[in-house]
Structure prediction request, 196 residues.
Amino acid sequence: MAVFIVFVIAAYLIGAVPTGVVLTRLAGAGDVRAAGSGNIGATNVYRVAGRRLGILTLAGDMLKGVLPVLAALLVFKLTVPQVALVALVTFMGHCFPVYLGFRGGKGVATGLGIFLVLSPLSALLGVLVFGLILWKWRYVSLGSIWAAGLIPFLILLLEKSLPLFVVSLLIGGLVIMRHRDNIRRLMNGSENCFKT
Prediction:
């Protein structure tokens, strides 16, 4: 039990690493929180600091989701409910990072990394939906919201696991909740389109 508790704490601390903040500062691009939307995620880093740092932030945030959950499955061989808890704690680390006064990102990339481990097919179908919406309407937020809402039900259908469904529902719900400002802007027509 003590080892599990230590691992859960480590999962939170890994999830809490603010990839976008670290990368933009290392690149001399300043604090990403002080520019654009003020978000620490890949989309804002892309807009503020360029394509390369945006892609690196996306990869780093996804990796934060992948590593703890993969370790829970393959290294520690935890039970499904324990893996679900590790996934949730990792995600909460990104959204509420201790390093930034508990003010973090929206969790899309970290959630995707988690879902890629928990249910790869569900995650890939979610990415497909995201991509189609982005291609059609050019709104990253809209694609993220739809994918976050869809993936839990894909996991329920494909994995048939109540613990994984519950944790994916919590993660997806929090992603949507953290897009509430985007939802308001989408409704009033003021949301920023994604430009390549």
Summary: The CA atoms of residues 24 and 59 lie 14 Å apart. DSSP finds ten helices and no strands in the chain. Residues 51-74 form the longest helix (24 residues).
